[in-house]
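Minutes, methods subgroup
Present: GH (chair), OT, SY

1. OT presented the first of two proteins processed in the latest run. Sequence and structure tokens recorded below as shown on screen.
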Amino acid sequence: MMGLKRVSNRPVGSPLMPSLTENEKHRLSVAEMLAGTYAIYLFDQLNNGLDDSLTFDLVTGVRIFARVRGVSVVISLIQPSSDVFDLFDRIIMLDRGHILYQGPREDALPYFESLGYVKPKHVGVGEFLEEVTTSEGLKYLQPGFSRLDLDGFLSAYKSSDIYKDICRVVDDPEVHQEFWVKGTHPLGVSFLQPNNGENVIEPVSTVVSSISEKGGSLLESSMDHTCKVQPGDEVVAIGSPTDMLKYIKINQSKGGLILDESQEAVRLQLERPLLEVKDQLIDKQFSRDYVQDPWTEFKHLLKRELQITWRNKLFLYIRSAQVLVLSFFVGFLFFRVKNDADQQDMNLVRGIFFVSLLDMTLFNVGQLPALMEQRATYYKQQSANFFRPGSYLFSKIIGSLPFSLAEATAWTIIVYFLTGLTVKEGGWHFWVFYIIVVLTVLNGAAMVRFISSIAPDLVAASSTIGLVVSVIILFAGFLVPRFKVPKYWLWAYYINPLQWGVTALVINEYNSKSYSLLCRDVSNLANIPQCIGRPNDTIGHAYLAKGQFYTSHHWIGIAVAVLLGWLALLTTLTYFALAQIRHMPKTRLTPRIEARIFSEGNLIVDEELAKDSKRLSQVPIPVTLSWHELSYDILITSIGKTHNILSYISGWAEPGDMVAILGCTGAGKTTLLNCLAGRKVALGRVGGQILVNGYPKLQENFSHVSGYIDRLEAYSPFLTVQEAVETSVSLQFGKKLPWKARSEFVKEILDIADLKHSKKMLLASIGQSISRAEAMRIGIAVELGRNPSILFLDEPTKSLDSRASSLLMKSLQHIADTGRVVIATLPTPSQKILSAFSRVQILKNGGETVYFGPVGNGGDLIREYFEAIPGTPLCPPNVNVGKFAIDVIGNGVVDRKALKDYALEYRVSDLALRNHMQLQRLRHSKGTLGPELVDQGYGATFTAMGLEIFKKMQLYYWRNVNYTWGRIVSSVLSGLLMGSVYFNVNEHSSAGMNTRALSIFISCVLLAISNANSVIPQVVIQRQSHDREKATRQYSLLLYNISFTLAEVPYLMLSTLIFSFIFLLMAQMAIGNAADFFLYWFILFLMTMAITFFGMLLAAVGLLPQIAATLVTIFVGMWVATAGAVVPKKKILHQFLGIFWTNPLQYAINSLTSIAFYCDTEKPECLNNGLNASCLNDPSACPQCNCPRLYDSNNIFVWTQLKFAKSLNHARIPYDILALLVFVIFFRVMTFAIWNYNETKRRR
């Protein structure tokens, strides 16, 4: 019924599999709602973005469904065609919030005729009804009738019988079902006759007394009946197909006469008490919130979830690669760590647990973009009561469980055995490791699901998850031991699931027989100081006790219980979020009301339409565009054959022309437009010839004189309307046009596009405070800023009502009057819209021309051409010419079979011969029509371009509050968090020293993860705008790359400065002098900038946010493990040293740690360049030495111990800075190279 059988087994959309077309998605949206069991169905703007044929199909399907199921359907439409209009039973007309007509569809035109407004021939009913109550309706008013304003129409409606009958139905205390039937005699029903006896039947009542067994027109199954007639039904209105209904109940004296006057064909409105309807029709399902029980819902949703996941091969490939790459990396990084009595080796084993659980948590972060994308579907379906939130949530959990278990299994097997963890005592330690890893994966997935359900958008979700992961890492017990956590943060330590996971694995491993060697048997206690004073403990137990870990095995069970508790808590919170929270786009009232002002007795028509022709001060290059025998084919890779989209299309457009391209969906009109514009098509597959002023078209030159109105999302969202136009003008003219002239040109553009009242609005308001009509005019204005000679528009009136379309056409006519060419594709246009064009090219399916020529007044020349072809029917009076032309060539709404081959008729017509002669003249007119286009390079100078792009990017960042200022707020919170955790940590103990040193590591990781993830959505948003601007050759890609870089710099500087100030001041590090502080900040800024630009690079490589987020996880995971904190440099296998030296984190950590802890121990007051060796461990040997010492490690200098343990080199700081600068430059250069490669690839 919905026309989806052909694609019933095709996925709705997948990056690696063919998705549905836009038309098929519309069909699916309707079918999805019809699959529900509802009594009332509401469809908002069902024909939004659709052509008439598809709208007709959808409404026909919905109508059949309504008749069969006996349900009510309310549909709002924008300017429906006559065929679509005739499918409805009743219509409601609104104007500025007032109902001006509500009644039978057949009575709409007669009703307005009674008011003096008559629909002319060849004007669509939808067009007439949309305009009749507006200022445009004046042209429909007949002589002798008074003009009506809004109040007049409202008063006329409220005094009509139609309105009175509606009030009767609504105000009646007894509820009735109203229904309408239509038939001819014999009707097949009998009516009660009036009785003048004592038991008098109301004279206005005409009750169906019986039904004829022989049948009749009212008893037949017909789409004209909204319900079957039954005995006892009461007729309340009667009329003929050509006359309005006469309402019996509100005109009591005319009851019998109305019935007697019935013609052969009759329309009836009947009513039936609703109690009878309830007993017969209402099923138990309408008394329940949900149709299915929870278990059945869950099974269906689980099946859907598994199908979606399994069919999303890209998702599976990414997750598999992510797990395998990082598991083998970690396995070989910690390959066969020794389990002997050595503190450093035992720390490495602990590092295995930390990295394993951290990576398993981070793996789920890559699912965040997909979950945010799925949320809109969930909102739609759950709001329609398709399922319960709990059923949906548990289907997501169980559906992802096999893949989570597969990840955990692969990770456990690879990492456990490659690193050489214990396999003694029957291998139960392995299963403990596996269980903890599984629970960590499930908790990570639950955390991501919860954040995706509460965050308003992807940017906020990315920032939130970065902060949460940072807190989890910080209190995991690896970077800050339990005894070093401030008392006011101990609660965070004890509730941290990652801490409990690491603790469980540490207890599990160090209580195994692999670490059963007694401390008294250790030959060198210096290697394991934990054994000092614990001769009877095993080395594993001593390590646990010294680190203040729990030592009993029962704490593993407690850890498992905590992880299960977190899983339950996150699942519960997610359930409530899914049930209660709805993050819908914010809507604002439009700040201006369109200028339709009515007053007593006078009608002031629209300000925009009343103005005279407008001008543009900048004169374009005169351009005559002609296309000769144009063809275009595409390669269908699945069958290895080509499919012809356009077939030998010819035509032309001269300065001042407005050329319309008509055709049904699939006729190739958009492809023809794109071929002419040189946009969105593979130029190598275009056949034929396109000439500009008689010269062959070169796209590089043609792009300077052409404008293409792109999709609405392709404009920078954080510019105002005026700023967007000013940027376009400045990039086109630069300093060649004085500032005053540029300003005047911008004003003219805003005036001609009717945007003066919207010029201060942000483009981000499109769809909110900026209407779609205004958005289309904004696109035109931005392109006009480039002073084009020719303007291309793809279906500019799509989804616009009659008035908005009229305003848009008026703007386009003003543009054409300035000597510019306008070429636009149109869905079936109204008579008024078609009349605005000077020429039209009509295409049939297969991309063949059936007409190219003048339009005439109201399309008369088109109508006369087709009606002159033998066998072609005349254009019906209720059908506009554009629709008539589409209908007769076999692409119509109802009859989709052409009576003749109209492409052949055109080729042999006199019109085609005249066109051929003109095309030949144009082909040989070099030098007479206009100049040959030459490559002028960029419109503005290199400096002017750079300034404009820089200004644009700065405005984008300044106004993008969620991203820019959200990042600064995150820096404040992160600084306070880090500072409070490391507040006044004593560096004179080994534990304190390591804790302070690791604080630098965690701060770098925190900034790296949050910035790399949050920048990816920004690149995706900017890419749409950049692609449009690059196609018009407005600026150099190099300047765009530099401006993007410079836009990030000030905010990165500010955010890292705020973080450094708060953190260092509270932690008392690198604040001895201003030089240390600013050097620390500068290096942190360089590191953050490098990682941010790396995120941009991955966004450019990955294209999809899911791929980029996964790549971030992989690389950050590798860098965290090889930064020298988890695994000291001297313990990294030489095979992995290449990763160490290409790791920006390790350069930053070496420098930052050196700045924070460095003290010149060789100065005369201390070791004196080795001359005072006893000073190394004896403070009394050098009392003037102020370098801090470790009191629990033989008074050794803190810097000496830390330098040895972390392989630090203070002298390497300048080289580290240079290396970070190289990373910054390298990542930007690679991003530029990828953008350039993609651009070159697109041109091919």
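2. SY then presented the second protein from the same run.
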Amino acid sequence: MSTKRVLYGLVGLYMTISICQSSYFLARTQWGYNHYYYYCVTNSSFALSWIHEDMTGKLDYVSKYIPEQRNGERNYDIRDDEITRKYFMKHPWRLQTSMQSNFNHPILDERWEAMDVIRTEYVELSSDKLLYQHFQNIVLKKESFDIPLSIRIQKEGHIFLCDGEYPPNSRCYWFMLQAFGGMGSAIRKCEKGYIPSEDGKLPQTPCNEQRVYKNHTVVPTYLSNKMWSHFVLSKHKNVLRFSQFSNQKEQLIMEWEDYDIPIDVTHIIVHSKINKGLWKIHNLDFLYADAASSDVNLGPPIFRADTFVCISMYVTMCPSCKLVLSLEDGQHVLKTEDFELKHSGWDQIKIMTENANTSNAIKLSITTKSSDPKPYWAIDKVRLCREKEFRMLKLSERVSCQLISDSEGVTDLKGQSQPNLNSKCPEDTIGEFCVPCHWVTYNCEYLKVCQERKCVCSAGYSGSECRYRCARKTYGHGCQKQCTNCKYECNKATGTCPYGCLKNYYGKKCDIPPAIFANPPEITEILYTEAIVRVSNFQLENSASYPITQYYTVQYKTADASDINWRNVSDQYHEFNSTGIFKILNLTSGTQYLVRSVIVGPNGKWNINDHLKVNNFATRCDEISEDDINIETSKTTARIYLSEGTTLTCKSYFITVEERGAVFSNRSGTFYTDLLPYKSYTVRVRGIQKTYEKKFATDERVPTSVMNLTVTAMSATTVLLKWVEPFSINGVFKHYVIEYQYVSYMDCNFTSFESSRKSRRETQDTSVTITELIPYSTYEFTVFALNTKFSGSPVSQRTTTPYCRTIQPEETPNIVRINTTHESASIVLSEIKCESIRGPLTVEIKTTCISEWCQNKNTQRKIDIKTLPKTGIIEVINLQSFSEYDLEVKLCRVNGSCSAPQKKKFETKTTVSKSVSNLLVYTKNASSVSLRWKPPYPPTGVLKNYKINYFIYRKKVEEEMQIRRCRLWPELHCAILNDLPSNVDLTIKVYAINKAVKDYSPPKEIQTYVKTEKSKPPYNLMLNWTTKNNMQVVWKHPNETNGEVSYFGIQVIDSTTDQKKIIDEQKLNVSRETYNLTYHYLFDGSLLSPTTEYTVAVYAFNGEDGDSAQQMTTSPVDVPKLSDDPEFVISNGLLKILVLPNKVRGYTHTYQLLVLRSDKQSNLELYPSLEEYELKNLKVIVECDLLQITETLEIYVGSLQQHPSCKEKDNSFLKPETTDNITIVLQNFFENESRTTIYTYNPVEKIKRVVVNPNYYWPPVLLIVVLVVIFFGL
């Protein structure tokens, strides 16, 4: 028998046990006191992993299959050992590793569990050496590779791909995963010696440059210390990629292409910063074949004790490849099955048969087929399997469990157990896929099972931790099943009854009821003290589950519920199926009786339960007449009694009034209370044989209260009252009364309830609309019902009318005045009476600073009118001193409607000045110090002057300084301190003072040494290249010259050599009178080499060379030129141009010459590099490559024949009597730089004639004649 199976997913699709594919659960059971075992079980092929929160636990847990394998059953992990070499390495199958192959897919199945794990920790040793962990067993030998790996780390994970084992001594690509505090990921490239080896050290430039950076605005979830995540690290030639593997797809995180000299990667190293980390690289051994083969026997012979054989393995193959498995017993082919994969990656496949001969060895045969030019097949982990099997991890400490798939999470036991109400599994199994308990542990006791964060208990147990047995008379999953027929208790898991059954029930669970008569006995005759019954129908209920029936009996008792004693009619049992006539004697007249037939079981017991069928009868007695019954009534009571002289021979009578009954046996009768007033009733008096009916009515009474009174606002002045009619009017309904009165204004703190007048309305409806109410006020509404005699109980409710949506003029206050200080304003408003307010009001104050120095332009404040002070003063604080403000005051409702704003202006007062800022000694010499500073800002008043003090030899010197702007920095203020002693330290303090203020600002101080010192460097150094390759140097005057500058030195340094040779040095002379903020200097580009890296340094000289500002630049490509004017020769309609271009210096990748002539049909759109030049109505006719040209070049205008380095572009003949201007363009390109030189010539004033050489045209003419002759000849 041959079948074909196509596999599409990572999970083996031939798993017959899967109720829910790729599922797993975590279980815990208790043994001893406070000791537990934990089990993680799956029905999938995905790997399992214990998750220790601190990452310190054992890491090499490998799951085992359950049920456990029988003796002789083995798993064959493909590795370099004797069994693999003997039984599996048969041509063309050979051993290979993941890193050697060309299809290194992520491996997330059970083989993942046995892969090596590296633990990284951020440990500071005594030497502060950083810990780098090297994957010893992995050496990369290919230029291109894919490395699948799994990672557990919170953040700051680092991977190094290096050409050595130790990153600080190697060239490496550095992958930084969720680094920079978890907010970014990056790729770096580092040369040898640039990666730090000590903690706290930073990588050197350019190793600290992020070649690619991925910003995480929200911390991503692709790394976690709570579970394993999976990735693919790739290098394909010079392209590096890092991707997350999820949902069978790679999602790119970072990618970078190395255009420089790539690193020859041989080793992979990992490192943690701050966090602990766990790392796995997906690398294992497997069988590999890249050629088709037929009937290759793999593995040792299989001997089985039964006829069922199942073999499982993991496979991968090319998309058009096929794998054929056969099971043979030496005589017959038992099963053949074809397998194909429609995806890349590994799959688990199974082949099984139930027809094996137990006396013969079974062999596995493999055939491979393919139409692919580069086929491949791989096999791993060949084992004997079961038709129904699971895998399990077991541990004696509390941890979480992860299913290592690409989409599952982590399961733990933290959830509260819920009743397992929908389980379809037997009670002796656990989990959604019904794993037998004894496969996992000894039994099902105290098992807590969690799956997808939902926890349940095993059958028979309950509670959040499954520590409690099911309650009495319950059992099973969620304790939902009943075991009511057991003696004592049932088994809490299975429901069986170990101590026997009650009520003659049968079966292990006592769920088989006893046999009973399907019909009760017939009543054939009733007398005063005796009755006759007959049993003739022997149809039974539950007869199929009951033994053979032999006897029965008849029993009776009174119908009184207190009588529980059934009496046998006869002491003798009667044979079943034998009709019996039974007389019941010694009965009481006028009494109700019950009678039943009962089966007698084989053990002599009666088959009695709650479902026995009974019949009833009443013995005879004398009846009363209807005229004997009398009724007396009031509002809520009725007395029912018999007339004087009535003879009672029956035992009792039963009286019913509106479903309420009573029994009386004397003339005093019975009383009924709690009747409804003004209601008609029917009384029924039932004796033994007859029933009589009489009607009566109760009297009127106070109506009950109306119900569900609601008050709904329809507008600011109108409400709608609704209610439900009273439970009882207790009489004839007249109407409803509605009373209402005003209680208080919402914004007033007093009520007017006692003094307000009540209003009254009447209606017969259960609703009424009240109008003309005061908005935003509280009212009390009262409703009661009236009948013809009484008023009902009132029901009241208070409600508040809605507010007016628009603001009324009487609600709006006016701005009386504004009082200000230097930082606040008091706004005085006119009084608002609370009686005038018609809705919730908010006073909105908005101040806008209109002075240019304001830091906080707008200040807003909202005040509820209820909290407004009685004085009407509103304080606005945190204003800016010496500033002009616009004030806007308006009142607003909660719905957004506002009054027209009132506007005013005000100014805050002057206050003490702020300190100066940016205080700097910008120059000094042996006797003076020049200061500059930024004036106080923002201003707090009109600045008056400054005060400067300092100490010389412990003597305080204080000077007042007038305001003086700096010449170079007009926005700053300057001062010079003269006649100072040299070589002394000074602490200089600068104060500012405003007009109309007595106090100075806090000081700003600076320390200096009175001595000429070398200048600080200039700043904002910029380098620009002109189109003629001259270099313009621009810089700004140093902030601190520390002396009088006499010139600036400008140096051009060759950066291409280690000696840093100075190519040129110039001086720019300056003096105090010629100082400028910005300086310019132009270097002659002819002295510099093209495409060369230079460093330009600029320093100030004040008697000694100052610190220099430096900037690196690369000179542009060389400007192309012609060595001399071209020579033009005109002959036979052709123009020959003789040109000799200069050889360009430096680097170049394109050096070309273009010849252009006048033509309105221009083709310059094909030459984007010429767009910036004014070349209208010109067409390129010749294009020449000059890279190899060393001598004079001949170019022809009007000819197809050109120099080999040239190409013609629509080069038409010259026309007589025309004048053509010839434009020659030279262009030099290197990388993103270019230089262009344009020459324009008029070689002839007018072409008078065109000399035609007869020999010039005869070859084409002869060719045309030959073609015509051939055509007609054919």
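Chair's summary of item 2: Residues 1254-1273 form the longest helix (20 residues).
Next meeting: continue with the remaining queue.
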